[in-house]
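Table S7 (text form). Paired inputs.
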Amino acid sequence: MNIYDLLDITASICPDREGFVYKDKSLSFTELRDEVLTLSQSLINLGLKTGDRVFYFHTNTIRWITITLACARIGVVLVPINYRSNPEELSFMLEDSTPKIIFAGTRYHKLISSAINKISASIINVNIEGELSDGWIDYKTLVINSDVNEIEIPDNDNNMALLVYTAGTTNTPKAVMLNHSSFCEFALNNLNPADPEFIEINLLSVPLYHVAGIQTLISGIYSGRTTVIQDQFDALDWMELVQKHKVNRVMVVPTMIKQIIDNQYFENYNFNSLKVITYGAAPMPISVLVEAIRKFDNANFINAFGQTETASTITSLGPEDHKIEGTDEEKELKLKRLSSIGKPLPDVEVKIVNENEEEVKPMIIGEIIAKGVRIMSGYWNNDEATKSVLKNGWLYTGDLGYIDLDGYIFLSGREKDFIKRGGEMISPEEIEQILYRHNSVDEVAVIGLPDDQWGEVVTAVIVTKSGIDITENEITDYCKDKLSSYKRPEKIIFENYLPRNSMGKILKKDLRKKYSDLF
């Protein structure tokens, strides 16, 4: 099945229902399908063929949906890019995936043109918002074509639909290849299809370069939800949108929840319409979750666990497990389970294995691995990385955890030292390589320390060269034009030495243990 088919099904069931709302624009499912048809024809006219790549470099807009579905309809691969990427990152991704077209708004034109010039590429640039720049095509001209020809929609669900970049273990990101089946199978096996008698309003505030945002949007299409799109998350704007549109369902990361419930104007808004709050993409501090459950007492909470490589949720902790009710013993058990990621979804196999790739017994910590048609097909242009995580049909997630006697899965840490900040995956090695370029830095280790707002914050532990003193401000200033804002160290610690094992490897776990209790 093709992702476009999900829209086609819903437009047939609920043709006049409002499908998407973005600022002062809205589209019914039929209007959305019509725009997708004309845009896909225009893409063909521009010379795009099956397997070609298309960049989307912008904040959330209603046009992300039309672009994604138009690409899907003709077998073209969408590459949604983090709009906070710096020029070096953007140049790498452009050269790595060689897109034929880039869709972006005016605010990003200068950055994109500079990156394209660096790699001497020939790419068609399409403006989707703001004033038109020289050499850019206006999106509107691509959706006024009335001559839509019948085309054969690729029906192989093993064809690639999206190429999603995620942090790598080096200074370059990896691109995850996700097929149509990655999203269609999740929808077909875990969601209810559109119902002409049931209307549900969904708020999308997670960025669409993140797999959580992609899953939220595609799921909304299949289930016939009216999705209100927030271009960038802002707590006050989020609360206004929920109240204004009487939103029933949201997907948020823990950082968002904390900013919302801590907002000074929280009590001024009515959230009675909110029935489902799904959260994930980063560790949720229990104190924040308990407070959120108390404040959103009319909503059901769901913890959805997955990663870019799984395309969508593979385990979930359902609403009943978030209701802290019953005897003292039952309440204690429920509170403990709040820190779990729940149980596997029916269409996915999940198990815990040891270093010999043997399944372990309950309560024994090992690596979480998953299997199913929704798992990625591999990393783009990176066979070595693919082979390291895909073994005999199983995805080795790099997350450590255990299964309790009742089948609930608990995370225990990560085999790799990735940092999860506000739902973003950050590679410590990338930051370390930048810091090592500073003339005064002798040794450095970048770790993630727990934080109630962001889940984890980037922390740099630095040993300076003998006889040299530097300040935190010097390091902060040094990183400003070398790292994206969310990757810059927020805590900087100066040490005389870094702990190492007998092989000379820095013991980051010792550093995390030492400093976790101090901040």
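Next pair, protein 2 of 2.
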Amino acid sequence: MKSRFFLPVLIALIVQGCTTPATSPSVGNDTPATVPVTKSGHPLAVKPAPSKQPETEPKQKKFAKAPLGTPHGKKTEALTGELLYYLLSAEIAGQRGRLDVAVPFYLKAAELSRDPQIVERATRVAVYARDEKRALKAARLWVELQPEKSEAHQVCAALLVRTGEIDEALVHMEWVLDHNRQGGRNGYMLITSLLSKEKDKQSALKAMEKLVARRPDEPDARYAYANLAMLMGRYELAEREIEKALEQRPRWTEAHILRANILTRKGEKERVLTLIKEAVEDAPKDTMLRMYYARKLVDVKKFEQARQQFANVLEYKPDAYDAMFALGLLNLQLQQIDDAKEYFQRLIAAGVRVEESHYYLGHAEELSNRPRMAIQHYAEVRKGKNYVDAQIRIAVILAKQGEIDAARERLQNVSAPTLDMELRLYLAEGEILSTAGRLQEAEAVYSMALQQMPDNSQLLYARAMVYEKMDRLQESIADLERIVKNEPNNAEALNALGYTLVDQTHRIREGKRYIEKALKLKPGDAAILDSLGWAYYRLGEEEKALHYLKQAFEKMKDPEIAAHLGEVLWVRGDQERARQVWEDALKDTPSDKVLLNVIERFTE
């Protein structure tokens, strides 16, 4: 995509009717000797206007009295034909993607006019074009003309770091720190943000190291250095610097959090928890630190401990709505339904995160087996990220109550703002129909969706499963093969295709290869281990089959895995163990068809 160039100050000047007589532009070392041309031979730049324009003389004189100015009242070059030539040539070159031509023209215009807007423009275009030599030249002029402008110093500092002129860069960094209106730490973080974008990490860190050395007693400097080192992957250096900052300011919340983030990147999760816990105990009323600690506990799935920490936050700060929301989610996760409801209701009463709270109250009511109340809450979700999911949940509840057509109507009336949400609606409608045994209608929904989203793997997979239920085996295999062709590393599709070939065709060895590839992609996956065990059983290698099926059953007590494991045990003569496996599985899933079929085949 070509760059878009537009110079407001140039357009404004042209609108003013400033048509100073043109002269032949002088060409310096940084300016092309001739006007550039396109491949077809047409000039890129505009020819200077004729030298005699008596009818515009009055306007010219009027403009001469009001030249472009600088904040210091220094006069700049009026819009002569020469200046206009350089500006228009630069703009046209930029519009045509010739930055190598535009940059020197802009720089010449900047030097000629000494107008801050043109100089800034020249700097930015040169930076964008990665012409560091000219960019630095323009940036220095920008600082000269607007020495009070922080952005000019920042750009100049970055370019000087890039060219290895660290000491001069420090002068500009010091200026930014001394003149930052928001305080010391923000100034340092501004420098950190600036340096973190540099490709030469060593030069950037060296510049920050020298800056910190000039201010050794400022913990903000240490903090910024540690943050930069972390961003650049120098974790040991980052840890050393943040420890020094904490020595200078022991109860600094942000520094404790930065140290934890550094250690997290180093993989020291347990140490993170220990240090943050100690910091929380040292400053129990620091709710920001306690919230961070609680979230870290959630990350390692220590939900009960996290719940206690969030509750402690509310004790010190009753209107800590983030903690309230987290407690609602945690209690939902821990099946403490009444407690979860209480927190979400409090949020709704406070007018905070109302739609999200209704959404999760809907979940809570579903878990409480109160479908009508669940629908009422889901219906309150009228916008936001949970809107489509709420409509899907309503449809699922209606379908469970036998209102299949009402469920479909609900989904079809949802206006999906994105293609991804449209996909979820199609998948939900197809699943509802498939579960209800309306397989032809489910297949029609998936096929219609595939016309809109060809080769979508989720739709193809769903349709393949429906085809299988309809005994349209070849079509099911074709959809799975299509996914694998488009996505060779789709483990779920590889496993499904492999299992289908193993279980229902004579292409057992081919199916086994697909399953083995899936297992390499997802080692230890219970469903894939089950498929591989079944493949070995179909090949007559019962010992290997038993090895994989036992692994699968240990990982997941699924009725289909139980059916397979029991069958292999029975065939190998261990009928007692087979019966035990089946009976245990029946307690949890008494109506599973695969399990019931295998028991019927072998015990009656």
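The radius of gyration is 35 Å.
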